[in-house]
Specification:
heterodimer; A: mainly alpha; 9 helices; B: alpha+beta; Arc Repressor Mutant, subunit A; three-stranded antiparallel beta sheet; 5 helices; 3 strands
């Protein structure tokens, strides 16, 4: 026979382990939201600074300048990765732990291909080719990593899907504006990138909140005794 | 009641020890941390923590290593769940969840 006190302890352990599982999912999803805010800010601030410098030294039309600043983005992102890795909780999604390393090569490969293709495009479209590339890279990360983590219940939202789809949907608008005015198109792309990142982060935060609310009734309730007749 | 107790058969009894269960739960939810942080979070004595952590390490549920510390400490002993520990904890949590669900259904 299981004693009433022991039974009570088992039920408390059950509630605690349930809460632990939801907390783990919550942290993994909040980390995703934080990453979108963080990387979005880093990337936008970098490219705004680059644009300011290009205006200052009148290098807007200099191809070598743009190749150089694009390559300089790599150590900036590595540093951002180190900084964000040191501050976020270490508990997270198992799928992201195993496959997360794929994300870097996916972005690198997508942008390398985009820059090769960009050479054949008119200058107006060349200036915004990074925008659909980013969208496609996000969708690839979703398909190869995020989707599995979501299906396995390790995260409560799909921010890469949200940002990828919203960027892809707004690409024709960006291309249209870029054809009218090169700089306006480029700035619109940057602004829409930030908007899509914010939407993705917001979706992730909502998903994280839902994770904690899912069985909220249980935690507040009194621990019941063993049911009659087991 | 025995029927509910049956649900916990096959689960490592060591994990049902309250202190070891709390250590595993905290490491599962929050990830790797230093032994100092773990001790403070659970309000355990060093002796208590040491004996329980050693038991979990013997079973291969946790791993310990020296890593960069926070604040003035250069190196600290860190602790994290191993893959086996995580799997065993998830197995226990699944059984406990079943138990909780059946209790909820019964009381509804």
């Amino acid at each position: 026979m299981v004693g009433a006190e022991e039974w009570r302890g088992v039920l408390e352990a059950a509630r605690l382990s349930d809460l632990a599982a939801r907390l783990k999912k919550y942290f993994a999803t909040v980390v995703a939201a934080y990453s979108f805010f963080f990387y979005g800010t880093v990337v936008a601030s970098y490219w705004l600074a680059v644009a300011a410098i290009s205006f200052l030294i009148e290098a807007e039309g200099n191809l070598y300048f743009w190749i150089l600043v694009s390559l300089a983005m790599i150590p900036v992102l590595l540093l951002a990765g180190l900084l964000s890795g040191a501050t976020v909780p270490k508990a997270g999604s198992k799928t992201w732990e195993q496959k997360g390393k794929l994300a870097g090569p996916i972005f690198a490969l997508a942008f390398a291909l985009a820059f090769i293709i960009a050479g054949a495009l008119p200058p107006a479209l060349c200036s915004v080719v990074w925008y659909p590339t980013l969208a496609l890279a996000h969708l690839l990360v979703h398909l190869l990593i995020e989707r599995e983590a979501y299906i396995r219940g390790e995260v409560a939202a799909r921010p890469f899907l949200v940002s990828g789809v919203s960027a892809l949907v707004t690409t024709p608008l960006v291309a249209f504006v870029a054809v009218q005015h090169l700089q306006a198109g480029w700035m619109l792309a940057l602004s829409l990138m930030l908007a899509s990142y914010s939407a993705a982060a917001f979706a992730a935060l909502r998903g994280a909140a839902r994770t904690l609310e899912a069985r909220g009734g249980r935690e507040g309730g009194e621990v019941r005794g063993p049911p009659e007749g087991g | 009641m025995e029927r509910y107790a049956d649900l916990l058969r096959g689960v490592d009894g060591d994990l049902l020890n309250p202190k070891r269960f709390m250590i595993m739960t905290l490491l599962y939810a929050l990830g790797p941390m230093s032994l100092r942080e773990l001790r403070r979070a659970l309000g355990l004595t060093w002796g208590d923590l040491d004996s329980n952590v050693r038991r979990l390490a013997e079973k291969g549920y946790v791993k310990l290593w020296r890593g960069l510390g926070s604040g003035p400490r250069v190196l600290e002993v860190k602790i994290a769940l191993t893959e086996r520990g995580e799997a065993e904890y998830e197995k226990l949590a699944a059984r406990l969840r079943e138990l909780l669900d059946s209790v909820d259904r019964k009381s509804a």
